[in-house]
Amino acid sequence: PEPLKVLGKRKGLNVGNALSKHHLHNPAYTALMARECNMLVAENEGKWQALEPRQGAYEFGPADELYAWARSQGMLVRGHNLIWQDAKWLPKWVNAYDFGTQPAQAAEALLRKHIVAVCDHFGDAIHSYDVVNEAVDPKTGGLRVNVFTERLGAVEQMDLAFRVAHERAPKAQLVYNDYMRPDTGSTKHRAGVLKLLHDLKSRGAPVHALGLQSHIGSWDEMGTGDQQREWRRFLDEVTGMGLDLLVTEFDVNDRKLPADVAKRDAGVAALAKDYLDVTFSYRQCKDFLMWGMADNFNWLQSWDEAPRTDGLKMRPTPFDDQFRAKPLRDAIAAAINAM
Ligand code: G3I
């Protein structure tokens, strides 16, 4: 079959995948990605925690290696991410930072220093940045609190992050990235994201697109009317603000689907087709990135918060452990062709 990137090219859609540094030592996997994709995002190596694990001790090596490989394949690169609002994923030293007697100035200086260091190091190698990741608390729809929001105000801090990124990476697309979903369990999350985007836009922050992480699952039954309507309402409002859409971290959680592999794979493919048909119907949707292309290279296998109750391995990605295409791959291809 034709590679996904070839199908995507006809529709103006980039097709990408999240790669980790250790995957570079798996030639069959990199060959699969090179065949199907024209875009790369580092699964972990571009995060602050990875880039500056100890204050001042930058470790750009792993991200550099991934981006160099992408460049050698003619791929575009997405930078993920400059600021992760969830304190749990900020470097420990940042959470313990001494902001002194002028905490607002010190917080601004620290934020600025990080973004400048990263943008200056990578330069034009980065086509698109997730400037801010996961700022909205899904339970309340309010903004998450961290050492920066406490000292600068949350919207002010994110506005600053976008401005500094734009200053230092003027050609890069700047993205707010989050995991809001179509279902009713995500109503507050979607509302919180819309409010944040409106607030950032009204301050004139240079935000260009919304990253739809798209870790979908049985909850996203788009076929069933209401949720599809809600998702469209959400995407209408986002695109109405002049923002582009990116599917940034696609995979399908199959924990509610039957154990039988054929049934499960068919269920996964159906969920994906419904979700992507609606999402790809927006001409503003320009990128589609998978969060791992093969089942054994996907974070859900080691995510213990909500495993399958039968203990079976998940089948969340388009290719199996032997890199054989699954029905999900056909569903993605069909959704791209229907754009
Ligand atoms: O690298 C260390 C290793 O040295 C250590 O021995 C090992 C022991 O736990 O941990 C390794 O770090 C792990 C890292 O992934 C690299 O594999 C962390 O524990 C683990 O928590 C981390 O998880 C990543 C997670 O983000 C948190 O950063 C997942 O791989 C990654 O898939 C996941 O990706 C996120 C996106 O960034 C944002 N959206 C949601 C998505 C899925 O959770």
Question: What does this protein structure show overall?
Answer:
There is one protein chain. The chain has one domain (4-337): TIM Barrel (Alpha-Beta Barrel), CATH 3.20.20. Helix content is 42%, strand content 16%. It is built from twelve helices and nine strands. It has helices at 4-11, 27-36, 48-51, 61-72, 92-95, 103-122, 147-152, 154-168, 187-202, 226-240, 261-280, 327-337; strands at 14-19, 39-42, 76-84, 128-133, 173-178, 209-212, 215-217, 244-253, 285-290. The chain has an eight-stranded parallel beta barrel with strand order 1-2-3-4-5-6-8-9, surrounded by six helices. Helix 1 runs parallel beside helix 12 and helix 11 (261-280) packs parallel to helix 12 (327-337). The radius of gyration is 19 Å and the shape is globular. The chain binds ligand G3I. Residues 43-44, 89, 133, 213, 249, 299 line the site of ligand G3I. This is Beta-xylanase. It holds the Pfam family Glyco_hydro_10.
Primary descriptors:
binds ligand G3I; TIM Barrel; about 350 residues; eight-stranded parallel β-barrel; 12 helices; hydrolase; EC 3.2.1.8; alpha/beta; about 15% strand; signal; about 40% helix
Helices and strands, with pairings:
Layout: H1 4-11, E1 14-19, H2 27-36, E2 39-42, H3 48-51, H4 61-72, E3 76-84, H5 92-95, H6 103-122, E4 128-133, H7 147-152, H8 154-168, E5 173-178, H9 187-202, E6 209-212, E7 215-217, H10 226-240, E8 244-253, H11 261-280, E9 285-290, H12 327-337
Parallel strand pairs: 1-2, 1-9, 2-3, 3-4, 4-5, 5-6, 6-8, 7-8, 8-9
Helix pairs in contact: 1-12, 6-8, 11-12
The chain binds ligand G3I.
